[in-house]
Amino acid sequence: MNIFDILGPVMVGPSSSHTAGAVRIGYVARTLLGERPVYAGIGLSGSFAATGSGHGTDRALIAGLLGMKPDDMRIPDSYELARREGLSFRFENVRLSGAHPNTAVLEIEGESGHSVKIQASSLGGGRIMIDRLDDTDVHCTGENPTLIIRNQDSPGMVSEVTGILSRKNVNIATLQLYRDKKGGLAVMVIETDQPVAQDTVSVLEQMQGIERITYISGEEV
Predict the structure, then answer these.
(1) What is the mean pLDDT of residues 93-122?
(2) How do beta strands 37-46 and 172-179 pair?
């Protein structure tokens, strides 16, 4: 724990969990989409649904989708800015069994037609956890350099990916594996001790069986 875990992030208030955390959820969702979003369907669960409006959770999520950080003074004006930038959105309250009280589900579509669905929770102090990516359970904070690799579930895939990272002198801090079914879609979540260069990401993208790679530098959150 460091001093920022105790004091909380530099942010536009009023709440680190309902406002700063929500901005970061929106920002990471935009990063995972990989392009400018044009539509967002957002479900609010638990206390996000009950008290989020008063804490500005809805505006904070939209601000993150627009690429704002928690200390951006434009957060209260995110609705109007979204309309100017061509981002339409819809909110609804949802019930999620077993989810953290501060949870949002975002289904977003980009300008090219690409879409992504994430479920993420705000843990307090501005920290977040990505709980689901599309239809696969994942658990990562995005606080460290992180590769999220979606690939076909086939033998040797993990060995090939880790071998490339080793040859590129990238040290793996944690590695988590998820899949929807045997032989289906798998997801690797790899946190590293140092930034991953774009040329390394490009080499991984050229591997057979790789569907998509998203890199979170750690600076997003």
Answers:
(1) 94
(2) unpaired
